[in-house]
Amino acid sequence: METNRTPWRLAIGEPFAPERTTWQHNRFEFRYFDGSYLLQINEASPGPKSIEAFRFAPIHIGLHFERNVIFFLFKIQGSWEWSDQAFSIHLVPVEDRGPGEASDKHFVPLTVVLVDADTGLVRALRVVTMSPRFVGAFQRFIAIQKAAPFSRAEHEAAIVSVYARYTASKDLAAAALYRERAGSNLA
User: Fold this and answer.
1) How far, in Å, CA of 17 to CA of 40, rounded?
2) What is the pTM of this model?
3) Which among 48, 80, 82, 177 has the fewest CB atoms less than 10 Å away?
4) How far is 27 from 89, CA to CA, in rounded Å?
């Protein structure tokens, strides 16, 4: 199948997305496309200390699956406390949903990008790995989502219900089905 898509190029000092120059402050977005994983973190005018922590501090990730919603969790030690984002494969554009078939023997990259929310420029890039066990679980949860009918209203109600039980991301992380330090060599 042939596509006319322009490749996405990420480079320090360049715009994260050429069509945008600002992003919401202190927000993040977990993105899944064509079997790749990307975590975009937006900080207002990140300083040297923040960039240093982003580049070198341990990154912890987690997965929670409840009511057919995947919650991707992350923490950057000394910089970002536990944070989460609800995920459904049904909200990913059809052309970006696959293949995503992870081997149970290979570590898979997670690209982490620090974006200056005030300028839209990439301030730091980092690639860490997710274990075969972690990615395998993520793919199993996606398969469960694909097999079930989808209703945006039910999806949003499920998120509200989970957040009523876990009022902080750290609580959701404590209940996560999978947690690991990204980049570790533990399968």
Assistant:
1) 11
2) 0.89
3) 48
4) 21
